[in-house]
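Q: Can I see a sequence and its folded structure?
A: Here is a first one.
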Amino acid sequence: QVQLVESGGGLVQAGGSLRLSCAASGRTLSYYAVAWFRQAPGKEREFAAAIYWRGNDTDYADSVKGRFTISRDNAENTVYLQMNALKPDDTAVYYCAADRYPISRSFDGYWGQGTQVTVSS
């Protein structure tokens, strides 16, 4: 079992930055691919970014590429999402997910409870 806890969300003005954390317990997160998804009010959950256990390869949705950076700290058993140049459209609940063998951008393993990010215009 892997328990995931997100933190770092909050209210920020457009153009600002936030860093989200996804802290894991129960298993070593370095053996898992970890992704960030987000769900805005009235919309379906969507993929934002992922980091894989093989060489730390990363993947980003077009909507966040160049603004968001995903990274992992194996010593802290934590994955981060640095979000810069935030836009009101980035407002959503952000979830992290961990999966040993995700299929493309589909993660069916463990999920956190989410952290709210609100970007004001």
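Q: Show me another, different protein.
A: A second, unrelated one:
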Amino acid sequence: QVQLVESGGGLVQAGGSLRLSCAAAGSIFSINTMGWYRQAPGKQRELVADITSGGLTNYADSVKGRFTISRDNAKNTAYLQMDSLKPEDTAAYYCNADQILFSGTRTYWGQGTQVTVSS
């Protein structure tokens, strides 16, 4: 089992910045992709950004140029630097990790951290 613990959410004014952290603990071998998803009230959960163990990144169009995902493999931690925040970025943000096992891929989720951007 892998546990994902997120931190760093909060309330910020439009144009401000926040940094989210996601620390993985437990049976953390063979974790490949780590990512961040978000879910606003009444909307489906959507991918924000993800990063492979080799450092390849992928971003949603809505956050390109404003958000940066990074990863410290030695600390088993992923980060999401969010700059130039907009009210529409308001959502619960969830960390995600995929673990490669002989039996297939297992996906884990964190408990979520709230990000609120005021106008």
